[in-house]
Amino acid sequence: MRPFVYERPADVSAAVAVASRFADQQDQPTKADVQFIAGATNLADYMKLGVAKPKRLLDLNALREPTLRQIKIGDGIIRFGALVRMGEAADNDDVRRICPLLSESLKLAASGQIRNMASLAGNVLQRTRCEYFRETSWPCNKRDPGSGCAAMEGFNRQHAVLGTSDGCIATYHGDFAQALIALDATVEIEGKRGARRMEFAKLHRLPGDTPDIETNLAPDDVIVAIEVPFAAWSRRSHYLKIRDRESYAFALASAAVALDLDGNMIRHARIALGGVATVPWRAKAAEEALQGKTLDQEVAETAADAAFAEAQPRRYNAFKIPLGKRTLVRALLETRDMKV
Amino acid sequence: MPKVISTGTSTVSKLSRRSFMSGSVLAAATMPIITRSAKAEEPPSDGQDNARALAAVSMRVNRQSYNFALDNRTSLLDALRDHAGLTGTKKGCDHGQCGACTVLVDGRRVLSCLSFAVMNEGRDVTTIEGLAAADGSLHPMQQAFIDNDAFQCGYCTPGQIMSAIGCVNEGHAGSEDDIREYMSGNLCRCAAYPNIVAAIVQARDETRRS
């Protein structure tokens, strides 16, 4: 591991100031010499593997702003401070009652220990676990731009079928992010350019020709909060995750669903898909296919077909298309049948 | 005399309660700092700080104070094992996938392999060595693992026990299904899982009664 300087800034503005002093603004946050650390569960792993090589770590855990550690609920908004741990958010009774999708996506992610460590903002910024990205001897356009992609013709069973490009098919493995993108969440950011808000859907970038550019953040941007709107409909929301083993594994396919129903008629469906795409994936085509319909098996299957209409399978991951469809159908019907 | 533990790159002073109470003066140990072999990658140098300087890190481990001098890259796991000499905490995968390195930090179970020691300044750490009472009687979870034969080779056991204590304290051991779900971060290659679940149920019930 490359040696690094360790600092513990006292507040958000100090963290931004140090980061902007040491980071080249042209750098991607993941490549910058200075990087933020909170839970360490993703970054420490990648530093051990030589995938991440920061020269300076800014530990955010001593930031003094109390709102960074709070969950506030009011005026139709759940506001998660960025340093709230996944486990705390998953165990919050009010969050579970208001929007089960949020709690379930957190509870089904990682392990008890990792959920105690990982911050919510760090969780949404977690990097892919593509085996070829993790192992530095393989070519990888995300880790080493222009070097090629070993996954294309490699063992790509875990890889994405949606949002792929000729340069990268690495899956975005997060679960919480699927809930956030389905629920039209917003992130609150402080950086050198001042405080600003960004739709969660704009946070991650499709790989395209630049898979190394993963987000629309600058290297000195600190996410300080994540806001999620809620209403009566959000009580009818659910996360279904399908894995190789029953727990502590990344999704092969998952579905985040929230349904606004009038009887069995769908006023509005919100859907995101995990385990199958390169970024948190909102399935707008599926939502449109459900609009105004009475939800039954056949209608759910039509929506699932729409969700995967543009899927691009590779040699070993074609199974994710039927699996992803069945996951979405089951999630829709289970959500319809929730007693709220 | 206080216990002085030296390793290749740092020196650790461990103050035992007895030496602290008797007012022993802790002599500054003077071990030469061995420079690691030169690597191709240069550390950052802006003239103000040095990535290779050892960091002073203080924490409480099992109710005793430790003052470490550590390379920033040292994981909490390596600090405990190699610098404090507490080898009960095990290194399995070293990448957060197996749970063998689980310890409690400020009462919450975490993976010591994925935490840099320097991030734990001022924290209160409990390892498997800190569970038994002063008279040697075992923690109810340790006794339950013995009573239920909840291990075979034993390598994952310290992590299983620390994680199980965290699981019960978090209130996630209500049912056997919950225990299986909330203990899923601790792998056991001997597959002692049914007995581990039984041990946790036993210790949970004993803890509730007491």
Quick overview:
The complex is a heterodimer of chains A (340) and B (210). By secondary structure, chain A is of the alpha+beta class. Chain A is 27% helix and 20% strand.
Can you describe this structure?
The complex is a heterodimer of chains A (340) and B (210). Chain A is α+β, with helices and mostly antiparallel strands. Among the domains of chain A are: 5-60, Uridine Diphospho-n-acetylenolpyruvylglucosamine Reductase, domain 2 (2-Layer Sandwich), CATH 3.30.43.10; 234-336, CO dehydrogenase flavoprotein, C-terminal domain (Enolase-like, domain 1), CATH 3.30.390. Helix content of chain A is 27%, strand content 20%. Chain A is built from 12 helices and 12 strands. Chain A has a 5-stranded antiparallel β-sheet with strand order 4-5-8-6-7. In chain A, strands 9-10-11-12 form a 4-stranded antiparallel β-sheet, with helices on both faces. A 3-stranded parallel β-sheet of chain A has the order 1-3-2, with helices on one face. In chain A, β11 and β12 (281-282) form a beta hairpin. In chain A, α5 (100-107) runs antiparallel to α9 (176-182) and α10 runs antiparallel to α11. Chain B is an alpha+beta fold and 210 residues long. Chain B folds into 2 domains: 3-26 and 54-130, Ubiquitin-like (UB roll) (Roll), CATH 3.10.20; 140-209, [2Fe-2S]-binding domain (DNA polymerase, domain 1, Orthogonal Bundle). In chain B, 28% of the residues lie in helices and 16% in strands. Chain B is built from 6 helices and 7 strands; from the N terminus they run ββαββαβββαααα. In chain B, β3 and β4 form a beta hairpin. Chain B is globular.
Entry keywords:
heterodimer; A: 340 residues; alpha+beta; Uridine Diphospho-n-acetylenolpyruvylglucosamine Reductase, domain 2; Enolase-like, domain 1; 5-stranded antiparallel beta sheet; 4-stranded antiparallel beta sheet; 12 strands; globular; B: 210 residues; Ubiquitin-like (UB roll); DNA polymerase, domain 1; 2 domains; 7-stranded mixed beta sheet; disordered N terminus
